[in-house]
Design goal:
With 230 residues, this protein is mainly α. It contains 12 helices and no strands. The protein is globular.
Length: 230
């Protein structure tokens, strides 16, 4: 029994040491990023881009679709969502595969703004948390959602909802129909797979997922969903 206890204590110490190393390196990665361009200046640069769209100029259906499929508890949690992280870990362990992520919309904004080309995934995830905490401290949920919609990649070289709407639909974001909203909300999850130019059938499959989530979280009635799926 003493040997087993010693082994357990040793394993716990190893986990603590490794975790500490990752946390310190993640913190360093974030500080290196904001030393190059501060969070405030990064946001200013984003908002000054010609394709930037304000949240108020987007259809409510699109905003609801994004929240439903990407982070349905967005307005309720902080920078991270422990419930989503726990669920993702369980799903991935159960399926022996990385099928689900637990990143919040705020964490995705952090990645888009600072770490989009970072290859050290584990350390990057920690850095994203530090950045996400700063975002939540300095900006409202609506502002963060606006940053997300303007920084996400839609495939085919389109960044942000304006470029994507202009490129895929030949319309302005404000002109999106409910059908358009549910399709566009699904693309950023995997642009190389779900972009309309990549595989229309997979685009529709992802759109059905968006519609299903909107029904589940109260943004659409089943009757509305059925009409969209006809």
């Amino acid at each position: 029994m003493k040997i087993i206890k010693k082994i357990i204590i040793l394993l716990i110490l190893i986990v603590i040491i490794v975790s500490t190393i990752f946390i310190l390196n993640g913190r360093k990665m974030y500080h290196n990023a904001i030393n190059k361009t501060s969070l405030k200046d990064t946001i200013i640069n984003l908002k000054n881009e010609s394709n930037y769209v304000k949240l108020e100029d987007l259809p409510k259906d699109y905003i609801n679709a994004v929240i439903a499929v990407e982070d349905h508890r967005f307005k309720e949690h902080g920078a991270i969502d422990p419930i989503a992280i726990g669920r993702a870990i369980w799903v991935n362990i159960k399926n022996f595969d990385l099928r689900e992520g637990g990143s919040t919309i705020t964490q995705q904004v952090a990645k888009n703004l600072f770490f989009i080309r970072e290859k050290k995934v584990a350390i990057r995830k920690i850095a994203e948390i530090f950045a996400a905490v700063d975002l939540e401290k300095n900006y409202s949920k609506d502002e963060i959602l606006e940053f997300y919609i303007n920084s996400i990649y839609f495939g085919d070289g389109y960044y942000g909802i304006k470029e994507a709407c202009n490129g895929y639909l030949d319309i302005e974001p404000s002109e999106m129909t409910l059908y358009d909203c549910t399709m566009m909300a699904g693309i950023p999850n995997a642009p190389s797979v779900y972009a309309p130019t990549a595989n229309p059938e997979l685009t529709k499959s992802r759109q059905r997922k968006v519609i299903s989530d909107m029904v589940e979280y109260g943004y659409l009635s089943q009757e509305q969903a059925d009409k969209l799926l006809e």
